[in-house]
Prior knowledge:
Strand order of the largest sheet: 5-12-11-10-9-6-7-8
Number of domains: 3
Strand content: 5-15%
Structural class: alpha/beta
Distance between the termini: 42 Å
CATH topology of the largest domain: Aspartate Aminotransferase, domain 2
Helix content: 25-40%
Number of helices: 17
Number of strands: 16
CATH architecture of the largest domain: 3-Layer(aba) Sandwich
Mean pLDDT: 88
Amino acid sequence: MPPTRGSLAPPPVDLPTLLAGWSERGSGPLPRRLAVGLRTLLDAGLVVPGTQIPPERALATSLAVSRGTVSAALDELRAEGRISSAPGRGSEVVGRAIAAAVPHRLGGHFFDEAATINLSTGNPPDASHLPPFTLGPADLTAEGGGHGLSPQGLWALRAAVAERLATVDAMLTSPDQVHITNGSHHALALIAEVLAVKGDRVLVEDPSYPGALDVFDHLGARTIALPRDLDGPDPHRLDALLAEHRPSLVYLQGGIHNPLGRAPAKGRWRAIAAALDGHDVTVVEDRALITMTEPDDRPAPLASLCRRATVVTLDSIGKVAWGGLRIGWLTGPPPLVEATVRLRTMTDLGTAVPSQLIALRLLPRIEDLGAQRRATLRRAAAATIARLAEEAPDWSVTLPRGGSALWVRLPTADSGPVVQLARRHGVLVAPGSVARVDGAPDPHLRLCVDRPDPVIDEGVTRLLRAWRESTAPATPVLG
């Protein structure tokens, strides 16, 4: 039933984002597949009763389909009693409400097995670049694996991480200050849940890592945008926002920025640390891409620059080694680390021991692996940019200083319809809106180049085909 008088109306939803990948699912003509996609959202509670459906023309534009396709799909749901329409009131969802799930950006735009070519995720395509290693039953206990359950992580790996932080980053850290997690994304989810509750303010760079925005949305936190340019956030703006909002935490990226492809300038980073020190604040510094950053570009960790602010640092080997290992870590003051370990034991009893042992063997070689990866990606990025300059000269993209993706600006206000159309051409890229704190339309798209050359070439071919189709003049209908 629609909301009763005096009840709160459901918050607006971003249907194009929630519907990502709808055209690859199911069978039959586009209207039928769109109806299936909408029905799935309703059944999952992602779109709840009382939600207003965008006008048909606007929804058609954002999905890169005709208005007739949208009308036919909505007619099917109207016939089922799932949507009602009235003159002057538009269309809204009806039916019984169920527990609503929180829509997420990573799941909607980065992990879609239906896509033939996935150029959205920024992870190594496989583990073939890793050095050979063996792992037998004796190895599972040789480094203290024991019964295999260790919520904080194997002591040997924690000690190795602490040693690396001391020698590479000048961060004096004890093994007790290290918590081994299932990647840095997991580490962020843990520390965010410790520090923030529903309604708390969280200060986040804009644009930012989409997965971080998912974490904060899941917690029900109120994200506050901190504008970010290629050299990093503005320290004066940071100081003003800290004074105005007094956030529960600040989330910043200390290595190559996802998605901008540049590390913060060192002078700017020191000013950021000074601004943080001026407030009673906890900052989470994500350094998961630090090894993907050229050594001369790496700013010092905030944990070594800040004198008063509380700093929690996240890191991972997933971008350099292999994401499937699911190995990351967080470091920080012992009480916060202990709090994340206790929180973790409610749902997860520890990271897999084999993955930790592999990470223990890879960690001494991680800088060499990083140098190889940076060289490979730099070549792939340059080749892709050269092709785009020739075949799409009105697109704008700057060679990144690291990382595995290009942040491409299209000559349009919203890349979303192009991304939707590209899916139907068999290539998955991410719209810039997923990196925006407010999820607003954005002219950029994120294009991963961490793939074999033939895969990148074919993916770009399909993307350009989708772009040409989206900008082709409409064929007049003769009557």
